[in-house]
Give the backbone structure.
Amino acid sequence: MKRHHALLIGLSMASALMLGAPTRAAQPAPASPIAAARAAPDARAALAMLDALAAGRWAAATHGFDAAMRQGLSSEKLRQLWQQLQQQNGAYLGHGAAEAVPAPAPYRNVLVPLRFSRATLGLLLSYDARGALAGLHIVPVAPSAAAPQPTGAVAARLARQAACLRAQPVAVDSTGAVLHGTLTLPRSGAGPFAAVLLLPGSGPVDENGNAPGALGNSMYQQLAYDLTCQGYAVLRYNKLGLAPSTGNGNDVTLATYVRNTRDLVTWLARRSAINPHKIVLMGHSEGGLIALAAAPGLKIAGVISLEGPGEPMARIIESQAIAEAKLRGASRAQIAQERVQIDATLAAIRRSHGVSLSLGGALARNPFARLFAPAAGLLRSEINVDPARLARAIHVPMLITQGGKDVQVLPGNGQRLARAAPQATLARFPDMTHDLIHCAGKAIACVMPQPGDVLDAHLVARVVRWLDALRATPRHAA
């Protein structure tokens, strides 16, 4: 799997936690098919379990579960989750070859690509030393797979908008690595242009906003094109460790991302096509936290937080997980147990050292500890940081968006952030999701945007109006 672990608020937790928790090595090499995988007992068990799922033999699919899995995932709940996967991603079409992927001892992982009509996802199965199934998890497929491509309305819109902009490849040195990205500039109008630096959300999300097997509607490319066609330069990029950017995507902290942000702003400000006094930080999800942390050390004109956290990440993780548990029908006892597991995980991360969390004793049986173990270093640097406290130090105009259908950063975060920021504007969008699309129905039905989903038009219009007002503000007033 990819060499990049981060918080999952930039990806759907319904996808990340739907069927359990995986175990993953701290710095896994990219997964590659191995001929012996099909013959290995774990791989045979994984394929047998998947065949039972596909055939609707729910009781048979639960054979081999360990005690915790049997308690938390009954055959009926497994049926509901499998059907929900197909509702979100289309009809199940089949699976690819089973692959052995790294896992911390004593676990062994098997990854099986699942092909649905609208997406390809990975089924990660974690087996304990006795061969019992200890984790069943839906994850993005390996980044070596073909990147998702936008379709339908998104593809048509991007093709039309390409006529009003110029796209330039970018390479910026930062923290001993090179960040690669794309700068889009308006074709019309006289520069220098006001500019937006787009800070991505967490997880393996590329400069376009895509993650193989998970996100495929190019939400960041859509946003960049929308803004550039309205007269703004936009820089978006691939994070450390996400090719073609170099570096180690596991060995990062909030301070690392802040340094990256400052280096990117410095690079932008030195371009002749950019107005250095009209640069705006725009952070999505975890990128919103990074924008708040980086802004005080920069000469910028404003900050935009798109579905960014308004409370410490420890609280975000707990509230997100509990919200997901309720959506999947967990009992009160199960939710209480998850709270205890989350608290234990966060306490262990606070005490940890280095990039990853060592799993032993009770932590080895804690699904949340196994989930977040590879990102312990980043989490340790973020979980106690209060975004509201950071916002109080932002003395430039700030736009904060809050979607009513966001199940990753729950409604209320935006209001808390807005109360703290001296010059904040809060824009609410009752039917917008965490990934910035319009959702007319229940939030759970729109957790994963489809490749043809266009950004919420109300959001784009509101961001443009705010940027236009900021651009018209005299430099001394800003």
Q: What stands out?
A: Residues 332-351 form the longest helix (20 residues).
